[in-house]
Amino acid sequence: MKKNNFKTLKILLTASILVNLTLFGFLGYKYLNNHVTAVSNKTLTNQSNDTQLKFFLGRNEVFTMLPNDSNEIIMLGNSLTHNFEWHEMFPDVTIKNRGINGDITLGVLQRLPEITESKPAKIFIEIGVNDIQQGFEVDEIILNYGNILKKIKSQSSTTKVYVQSILPTNLNLFGSDKNIEDIILDLNSKLEQLCIDHNITFIDLYATFNDNGKLKSQYDCGDHLHLNGDGYLAWCNYINSYIYE
Fold first, then answer.
1. CA-to-CA distance for 245 and 242, rounded, in angstroms?
2. Would you say 47 and 64 are in contact if contact means Cβ atoms under 8 Å apart?
3. 93 CA to centre of own chain
4. 3-state percent helix, strand, coil for the chain, nearest multiple of 5
5. Residue 199 — left, alpha, or beta (φ > 0 → left; ψ -120 to 50 → alpha)?
6. At a CB cut-off of 8 Å and minimum separation 6, what does 195 contact?
7. Which of 57-61's residues contact partners 24+ apart within 8 Å by CB, and which partners?
8. What is the C-alpha to C-alpha distance for residues 183 and 173, in angstroms, rounded to an integer?
9. Which spans in 156-228 are helix H?
10. What phi, psi does 214 have (nearest 5°)?
11. What confidence tens digit (pLDDT) does each residue in 16-29 have?
12. What whole-number distance in Å separates Cα of residue 55 and Cα of residue 47?
């Protein structure tokens, strides 16, 4: 009897692994395809696209292996979210980091099932600066954001969602002749309106970190995009009331 149970378990485990491999292969294809075809002015080489894809799939696979908890608070975003230990600043709540370096709105949209599976209490979204870097238009980013909000609502209707604004950065970082400050301001303005339309809380981080269109030097880790320790402390202080409300 035990031998038969073990055999059955082995078959189920093998089937589960094959299903997961198929799922991640499909997800990977869609993610890479969206990166390549949706961007008219692609700035990444095929090699860096392949590296980013592998990193995206690897980190997302880690997320799928981790246990779900009740009343989770999810920090969802790109490297700005990824690079901080949120649970150490908010140790008395169940807060989880679901940031992926280099991620874009399409990436977040693709991996939402893992995010919403636990029916989290709250999701704090921070995404968009890499979309700008890769050449997405503001209206494309807003469309993706709208789909993210709709998908969260349909998959986890009780989750409270917070959209955090794009932070200021350095114009020269993107090697573009466009005024990055104007693009970010336009995107943040439309994000705020989108939140109003969806009855969702918009958190304006831009004003806290802005210095004439650039990231304040006291919060800059040195690359004019990512935050140092003081920057993350300022971020945590700003969202503290939202975490505990």
1. 5
2. no
3. 20
4. 60, 10, 30
5. left
6. 163, 201, 202
7. 57/24, 57/27, 57/28, 57/31, 59/100, 59/101, 60/24, 60/27, 60/100, 60/111, 60/114, 61/20, 61/24
8. 14
9. 180-198, 206-209
10. -120, 165
11. 444 444 444 444 44
12. 12
CB 213 within 8 Å of CB 171: yes
d(CA 58, CA 52): 10
Amino acid at 201: T
List of long-range contacts for 91-100, beta carbons under 8 Å, 24+ apart:
93/243, 93/244, 94/69, 94/70, 95/243, 96/66, 96/69, 96/72, 98/63, 98/74, 99/75, 99/126, 100/55, 100/56, 100/59, 100/60
Q: What is the DSSP string of 77-100?
A: ESHHHHTS-HHHHSTTS-EEEEE-
Q: How far apart are CA 164 and CA 24, in angstroms?
A: 28
What pLDDT digit, counting tens, does each position of 155-214 carry?
999 999 999 999 999 755 555 567 889 999 999 999 999 999 999 999 999 999 999 989
Query: Distances in Å between the alpha carbon of 74 and those of 85, 124, 133, 198?
Result: 12, 6, 25, 19
Q: With the CA atoms of 174, 176, 178 and 183 taken in that order, what torsion angle do they form, in degrees rounded to the nearest 10?
A: -20
**For residues 39 and 48, is the Cβ–Cβ distance under 8 A?**
no
pTM of the model: 0.78
The answer to whether residues 106 and 34 touch, using CB atoms and an 8 Å cutoff, is yes
Query: Which tokens belong to 83?
Result: 């690079």
